[in-house]
Amino acid sequence: LAGGDELLRLKRMKDWVDRVFTPVCKSAHETWKAAVARRKEFEAPIEEAEKILRLELGKYKAEQDKLAIEAKALALAERGSDAAREASLIVGAPKVEGVSFRKVVRFEIVDTSKLPAKFLMPDETKIGKFVRAMGKDAEIPGVRVWEEDSPVAR
Length: 154
Known about the structure:
3 helices
């Protein structure tokens, strides 16, 4: 078959391309990995300090806001409406130019068995590994398994 001969020719061409470019790509990849690792060495202490500072600033702001609310409530209780005007001038944490706070919504998964299906993601790598190991007899609920012929050039 002419198609089979062409497939073999294309495979030889691909093998040649691999022989030429694999060493270059491998060297470039190793250089890139070394550069990324070095960058991480420099970034790690900066990111750790930033994380600690953000946490402390958040705690400080929360405490200052709490104190301001308490002072406002106390002033209202003690002196009535005149105090309300004064208390409204009480602010929380002092402002720092270039630093602001925003509300961030966070979450944690406490019971995976209660997660709705729309939040579950199948692990296709594990499914593929299982199917290749078990062959066409692999049975996984919700997964269709079949065989196909795929041409292979040697």
